[in-house]
Automatic annotation (TrEMBL):
GO CC terms, sorted: cytoplasm
Record flagged with keyword Acetylation: no
Entry keyword set: Cytoplasm, Methyltransferase, rRNA processing, S-adenosyl-L-methionine, Transferase
EC number: 2.1.1.181
GO BP of this protein: rRNA base methylation
UniProt GO molecular function: 23S rRNA (adenine(1618)-N(6))-methyltransferase activity
InterPro entries: METTL16/RlmF, rRNA_lsu_MeTfrase_F, SAM-dependent_MTases_sf
Gene source species: Horticoccus luteus
NCBIfam families: PRK11727.1 (NF008725)
Name under which the protein is recorded: 23S rRNA (Adenine(1618)-N(6))-methyltransferase RlmF
């Protein structure tokens, strides 16, 4: 076991199966991915860390985590695209696995017969990468941005273990989530969605400034860099998270047999009452709110089904 000085503080609230629940073991990460070394520095309490306000450092950490923990030897994303925090994304999948287990005598279904629909797979392809490695599921990822889809395809092509486990499809209509990317009669065990949280570019920029203030104690950039990146369609949409999730629910009701479970992340607890009312209006047979946490950050996923 590495010394305590190489291990970052534990991340309270992460799922028990999350590989990152004990924090980042930087000594092990550096052995696997020496390219991370220039970004590692002592934290105020003496443990190893990186500057999470530096987008290049965040990308390097993600690359090391994916290589060390999941065997993803090649992972690159275009500049400016969303670089997701791996522990939080893994948590979503572990909670979804528990949800699926409730329909299988509390045994998590594994293997390629479990088909997962990832709405907005992104340039990073993060959910399919983690889901294939942790559970062996088969993923269909949809994406409206051709450049992001091309990036995801490069990641899959560069890692032979992913071949045949991940399908990537272009969604040509910005108004549709399911129509145009799923075939008649096609079904999935579950769908995933990480919706745009903000209602405008200005709101997204303000969110970044708040994050930097939290990281540094003050917002030191006049034009703040997005430490986790993100293109406009990844960060905001008209009406923000409430409008996007409303569209998702209404369109799921038009395709009630497509997925055993429909799910989405919900960043803001104040959006839950409206979501609950809409799910009742569309006559969802079952709806659940599953709390999630990573350190001080609180989130939740909402799951519903019609059968």
């Amino acid at each position: 076991m590495s010394s305590s000085s190489s291990l970052s503080s534990a991340k309270p609230g992460l799922h028990p199966r999350n590989r990152h629940a004990a924090g980042y073991d930087f000594a092990a990460l550096l052995r696997t991915c020496p390219d991370l070394a220039p970004f590692v520095r002592p934290s105020p309490v003496g443990t190893a860390t990186i500057d999470f306000a530096d987008p290049t450092a965040v990308v390097a950490l993600n690359r090391a985590l994916l290589r060390h923990h999941y065997g993803i030897a090649h992972w690159e994303i275009p500049p400016g695209y969303l670089c997701p925090p791996v522990p939080g994304r893994a948590d979503y999948l572990h909670h979804v696995a528990d949800l699926l287990a409730t329909d299988h005598a509390n045994a998590i279904p594994r293997g390629s017969s479990v088909r997962v629909l990832d709405l907005g797979v992104g340039a990073n392809c993060i959910y399919p990468l983690l889901g294939v490695c942790d559970y062996g599921w088969h993923f269909v990822g949809t994406e409206i941005d051709p450049a992001a889809l091309a990036s995801a395809r490069r990641i899959v092509a560069a890692n032979p273990a992913l071949h045949g486990a991940i399908e990537l499809r272009l969604q040509r209509s910005s108004a549709q989530l399911f129509a145009g990317v799923v075939a008649p009669g096609e079904t999935f065990a579950v769908s995933l969605c990480n919706p745009p949280f903000h209602a405008s570019a200005a709101e997204a920029a303000a969110g970044t400034t708040r994050k930097l203030r939290h990281l540094h104690g003050t917002a030191r950039r006049t034009a703040p860099a997005l430490n986790f990146g993100g293109r406009p369609h990844e960060l905001w949409c008209d009406g923000g998270e409430p409008a996007f999730i409303r569209r998702l629910i209404l369109q799921s009701a038009a395709h009630p047999h497509l997925c055993g479970w429909f799910t989405t992340l919900v960043s803001r607890a104040e959006n839950l009452p409206a979501i609950a009312r809409l799910l009742a209006d569309v006559k969802a047979a079952d709806a659940r709110v599953i709390p999630m946490a990573q350190g001080q950050k609180k989130s939740r996923l909402v799951a519903w089904r019609f059968r």
